[in-house]
């Protein structure tokens, strides 16, 4: 890493270490959101499977129907956490003089 890049980041108010920490936090936020999406897909797939293949067993079919709204709730919570964390990262970055 050259000194020019380091000087450039200190002009923004963040040193290189803090700038990299913001990047790591942002990437962690994206990974967490993708985990919510993966969980949503799994819950939805399991729900549809239980409904389609086990419709003769009433309890399993009901459980499948319960998984569908749980998948939607999981996705909504994931989107909410992703957006709130992104806003919080942006506020911290702006408060410290970053871009």
Your description of this structure?
This protein is an all-alpha fold. It has one domain (3-95). It is built from 3 helices and no strands. It has helices at 3-11, 16-53, 58-95.
| Unreliable segments of 5+ consecutive residues | 1-11
Query: How would you spell out the order of helices and strands?
Result: HHH
- How many distinct domains? 1
Whole-number average pLDDT?
86
**Please, how many helices?**
3
Which class of secondary structure composition applies to the elements?
mainly alpha
- Beta strand count: 0
Overall body shape: rod-shaped
Query: What distance lies between the first and last C-alpha atoms, to the nearest angstrom?
Result: 20 Å
- Could you give a short account of the major beta sheet? none
Strand content: under 5%
Portion of residues within helices = over 70%
Radius of gyration: 21 Å
């Amino acid at each position: 890493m050259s000194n020019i890049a380091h000087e450039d980041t200190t002009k923004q108010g963040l040193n290189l270490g803090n700038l990299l920490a913001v990047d790591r936090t942002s990437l962690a936020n994206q990974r967490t959101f993708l985990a919510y999406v993966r969980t949503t897909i799994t819950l939805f797939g399991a729900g549809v499977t239980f409904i389609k293949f086990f419709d003769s067993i009433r309890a399993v079919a009901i459980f499948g129907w319960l998984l569908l709204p749980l998948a939607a709730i999981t996705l909504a919570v994931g989107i909410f956490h992703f957006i709130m964390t992104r806003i919080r990262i942006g506020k911290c970055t702006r408060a410290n003089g970053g871009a």
